[in-house]
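Table S7 (text form). Paired inputs.
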Amino acid sequence: MITKVRFLGLLMFFSVLVSCHDDIDDVIRPASAVEINDFIWKAMNIFYLYKSDVPDLADDRFDNNEQYRNYLNSFESPEAIFEALQREGDEFSFIVSDFRTLEQNLDGITLDSGMRFGLVQFLSSGDVFGYVRYVIDNSPADQEGIERGMIFNRIDGEVFTENTDFKALLSQESFSLGLATLNGNQVESIDVSVNLNQTEITENPIHRTNVIDLGNQKVGYLMYNSFIDNNVNELNDVFGDFAAQNITDLVLDLRYNSGGAVVTSEDLASMITGQFSGELYATQEYNGNFDDEQILFNNSTSRNASINSLNLNEVYVITSPSTASASELLISALNPYINVVQVGTNTVGKFQGSITLYDSEDFTRQNVNPNHRYAIQPLVLRTVNSVGFTDFTEGLAPDVDQSENYANLGQLGETDEPLLNTVLNMIGNGRPAPGETFRNDDYKIIGESKMNLPNYQRMYINEKLISPQMP
């Protein structure tokens, strides 16, 4: 067992591999594909959270080098061996053929139109449509007049069905978006289309902030759409402004936040609170190669700025079926310490974390193999809150169950936006009466704008890996 590991220590020189592999690089001079497969197997053998559930990852799986080499040669592609080494039901581990794209995505850089949307199917009619959630300022979509609440049901004239290849349609450099309207559970096309181009965009995850005056109460509102580490000091500035304006309540809108960096979740929790510095935020549990790691509430950000803490004992969080991973960690980790009031719908149910592993001696970006750009992002940990709560596969259920009304979305951050309005009524008047909130069970979300990105619904640790102190 490795001890004294901060975040995720490395087993240098592959010490957990069986002895027959110690000199494998001296024996095998593989072709490029086998070289990549060798990296994938070794990385998964060391780090994969569910290693014990995959027989081919056992330390004693191979009797000799020849058997190992034949195993690597039995796969047609790096993607094939990576898939074979995952536990059944693992929907979140992934492989990329060019880690540069992944690195950009993790920093919030994407190639898109700037239109953030959801894709929905009515269960009763089967009709499929998209709705605009929000638009990034100064993006192509913004310049073309796309606005929150717009409905669309076709791209380049192809009307959506549940079998539509959205990845192909939405990966084009440009496309024509056909608008529509909703008539009950029917989607009706209108003779209006908008041409959209896609370009490289860096999205600021702080989408909207506001301070709302409710008489003797001041409510801070923050729509936060991704836990991005390099943005954390700007996030801290928002909380400095909230503190300067003496807010009494906080509404954290995570309805479209599919996750991001664990360390940013930890920092945000410390901004909301402040009175728990040094106490257990959550535990990261790894496979049998590593000791578990405790992460704590802190008083400085990951970028070494003093945290602007609000010292709140209650927070209101807006959620949806798109709320995942690091967002869910924030909710579950805060729950034992303060009153977390969740308004909206069930979250995704993603409690595992991953890390980017490269083909290098220590699996970091440094001295990476120049012969290819493959990297893997396997699940390497699960998060457990301070009272042992984890494995919430069905998601986190809201205290107040309220769906978005696609026919009346409202404007984000405005007091009459339906979900925010519910929260403000709760702050000012107590909980809403039964039947007061909107609920629609005649739909399912079948996709959204970030679903094709490699970091979609991911929670990751991106700290520099360090060598362990060996026992």
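Next pair, protein 2 of 2.
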Amino acid sequence: MNKTPHLILALTACGALSASAQNIGVRTGAAANSQTEFSGTQGQDGWTYGYFNNSQSGVDFIPFDDSWYNGTVWDWPAGNPPWTEVNANGGHPNGDNNGDIHSAVRRYTVEDLNGGQPYGIAADWWISKANTGGGNGVTGEVYHNGTLVNASTIGGTDGLGASNANFLMVNPGDTLDFALTPQGTDLGFSDGSDGSNFGARIQTANLWNNLGAVADSRLDFPTGLSDPQGANGWSYGYYDITNNGAPDPGGTDFIPFPTDGTTTRSTGNWWDGSTFDYPDGSVPWTFLGTESGHPNGTNSGGTEEWAVRRYEVQAGDPGAMLVEWDLRAENLNGDGTSIFVLLNGEQIGADTVGGNDGIGIHNSAVLLGLSPGDVIDIALSPQGLTDSADGSDGSRFGARLYAVPEPSRALLLLGGMAFALFQRRRR
């Protein structure tokens, strides 16, 4: 394993570019937020509200008339049907049981944050049922200049829903459409009980045109393997913080979940440490799934454990990578959780979300000088806003790794990103 300090690029608070061997995470800059910027004025803060008439014109965006805002909701006039509406937190599509199929749409028109030049964004978007009384579910879709880039379908009772993130290179004037459609899990388009939450947060991210995907904790998660440790470069386990303290340099105190079936189990869907017995007979909550996870708190057996996804840099991987991580609450109660990102046992980033934060965070850092055998840990901790108890700490978290250009070009591009981050007029 390479013990040489790694160069991590960071933007300082004053906006200047620094190159440091310290462990500093790079927080992306806020560009737009559909909830906090919702208004009754079309085009304000770049947001326009309308719909797709999927039955007649496909995904051609049709803005609502200015008179259709009633003070809190953009709503089709003269009552329902159609049920098509958009509010600050969500909306309602119209189904084929009530005439034409309508997708309720929030459109964001990309603002000029980089002197007329293209720049990178991370589009974090989410969908969940507000009316969990039934129905066949709904689908969330994201379009960039009319091209579908992502979609998620959820069931009619799914109040947790799904969250997604997309890296995109954008130009001023580009359009991003966040659409709520009535299509459910049965592929039907009925709109019964389709009231839903949906929205987006857009952050300036990176300016690299040639980012190449290296690894993705969700896409690479092993299923159906008798010994999935190490598959696709990923291993799964935990840090025992109570007994071993904070992670050691090198990350050598990482404890992999075993695969012999005696002390833990891998079902092909999750790693689960729930059969680890403590002296008082209690068991830890520590487990990992494709996206879900749970740490163990000091209230459960007295031992704090961090659930860890570990990526080991492989032969042939680039020496410079962007690590992008995210965290949100799955069980919307409790005190919240934290995510720690470690390179060879040393912290490069950390974030905390509250127990009711189903939107969560999205963050990133750039690592240079990587060598095969280096380890990157994405750790879920029970540390919440006030304590390290694990009540309602079920969370969704993961990470993606991207190749980045050679360091000289990365420095130039990050200099441009400093402009984009610190010229923003809002939040």
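Confidence is low (pLDDT under 50) at residues 1-28, 206-210, 275-279, 407-427.
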